[in-house]
Amino acid sequence: MELVCSKCGETKEAELFKKDKNRKHGRSSWCKACHSRQTTLTVNRDKANRNNRKYTKTTKGKIAKKNYKVSRRAKLKVNLTKEERKEIKELYKLALELREHGFDVEVDHIIPLSKGGHHHSSNLQILFATHNRSKSNKII
Q1: Which residue from 118, 114, 115, 123 is spatially nearest to 87, judged by alpha carbons?
Q2: Number of H helices, E strands in the chain
Q3: Taking the complete model, does pTM exceed 0.90, yes or no?
């Protein structure tokens, strides 16, 4: 009997799939190789997260975190005119009003701060939260 791995899409012998009593054919939907790769990724990610938590508690880690916050705050401080500040405030007020009416929206930087964008009214837009989160720090 041959099965198709839902992870890699390859057709393989049933023996190359883990046993799973809950499936009608008695085998997992992923092959053993895909399970192994996923487990390795998860273990490495967990290890990296643990190491990062340890690092941020050290003096060097605290300094790095503080430097990151300072650099991000500096990108937010742009010389703006009163009109530009007013435009930004109005944009945030509009987003708040939309949230109060049941829309899940956020103010987004068109060019992300991490990619050299600035906190300026011409670089801001209102997006649905799901779109903003899927966009992450990409320039679209």
Answers
A1: 123
A2: 4, 6
A3: no
